[in-house]
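Risk register update: the risk of archive-format incompatibility is retired. Evidence:
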Amino acid sequence: MKKRNVSFLLILAISFVFTRETRGEDQLLSILKSELQRETEQLKANGESVPYFISYRVDDLSQASATASFGSLQLKTQGTRNKIFTPMVRIGSYQIDSYHNTSELRYLPVEYRALPQEDNNGDATKMGIWSTTRQAWSNNTQKLSSIQTNSKTRVANEDKADDFSKETTVKYVEKKLSEKQLRFDTARWEQRIKEYSAIFKEYPEIRTGEASFSFQYWRKYFVSTEGSEIAQNLRYARLNIQAEVVADDGMKLPLYLSYFAYTPEGITDHKTILKETRELAEKLVKLRKAPSVDSYTGPAILAPEASGVFFHEIFGHRIEGQRLKNENDGQTFKKKVGELVLPADVSVIMDPTISSFKGEDLNGSYLYDDEGVKSQKVDVVTNGVLKGFLMSRTPIEGFPVSNGHGRAAPGATPVTRQSNLIVSTSAPKTSEELRTLLKEEAKKQGKEYGYYFVKVSGGVTQTGRFNPNAFNITPLEVYRIYVDGRPDELVRGVNLIGTPLSMFSQISEVGDKPGIFTGICGAESGSVPVTAISPELFVRVIETQKAAKSNEKNPILARPNSTQPKESK
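Archived output:
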């Protein structure tokens, strides 16, 4: 049974059963290969602005979903399908080309197109590929001209690495999944989400209470003029439960549960989810009456979920190699390879090659990235020492090739992105040992209490040079741990803030029980699935600020159809 708690970005109900042709050769792959050859030959014959590299990417996404609110089905979609075609037409050379990193050209639009949903509509598919390729060629011709002009009037980039790496040709084609492999009981899941969301009717304080279930089949295609041909399958089943109360001072207080597996059958059992949903509702009622706290500096423990978000947001984005080539980036770790950047007993890897951890499915897993490179395990930090970076096909000095981390949402250009982040330690401490350390440190600092961050909704981080190189994580469930032995106290209104190097220097000890947390990460190339696996962290000094709130009052009229809350079982 597999349970997931989303950390980085709460996945709401989107889109649920799929019927596709599975016999014979994959028609779309054949069209992509033939059109790539035809377009390449025509552009070469043109003689001007001849591309040295072209790739075609198609994200064929089928999904179905349902959402229930307070026990009633609100939204239902069956068999939604989208095919997004994204070409890459690189003009120039591997050394310098039309994708050269300049601040003026970073945010120009990417050429992409929705292809016909029908698998047998070959002519319309070819027309879409042709027109989008032509537009990409035209735009990149103009981009290269601008880059060449700028090079005469601008200081050269500090990083002299090539614009694009040469990689091994790959041929890997999975069979399409069959209708049987994609079939699931929609009625069963619709009934379940109604039951989950109905629990919130019993608590008059709860203003919104929803449950949503989605199942997604993602077939990804990639072909290139280097000879690579890839077709791979991904499946995702997600159950999300969320509810919200509003405190008397107007502060909105949400909590959520989220479960993830590759198939609907892998989601945690029904009785456990009912129990955890009721616990969430009762916690919300308590949170509404919890004290709102002031700004604070002092010791804290980050529970595995908060720790996972911390490493993803504050550390993970700063070891994405392509970002380090941009001279507007803060480049926090670019020149720290071989240096101690974390405690000497802490190691960090990024590994998209593993699909499970302790029997639980991982969201950040894939066989090949969106630039046609095989996924690879990357030892980022070993015993506290920085060893390297995540790399796409955009090299940086000292790292000339990709390690399979060029990723993108449909319709976006791949850049370096995270996958499965795993934090480990060679000197683990138990939860009780961490609590003791927190109390001792709080006494040393003259503090009445330390903080325990349990659940967070996500975070943002700034990596550029023109704004403070800082982070802001939004906790949802936070407790005060008192040094005098009083019971832990639930509080609200806390934002965890700081700057990365300062925060890393305050990490003291790491726990012994890792948690697995799944989410969706949004960045320059859109939203991609990721996972973070991390134990608890004890931090000697953290900084918080008061969370934002509205001035909205609670409604005068009571919510309809509310009953008295039942006791938890």
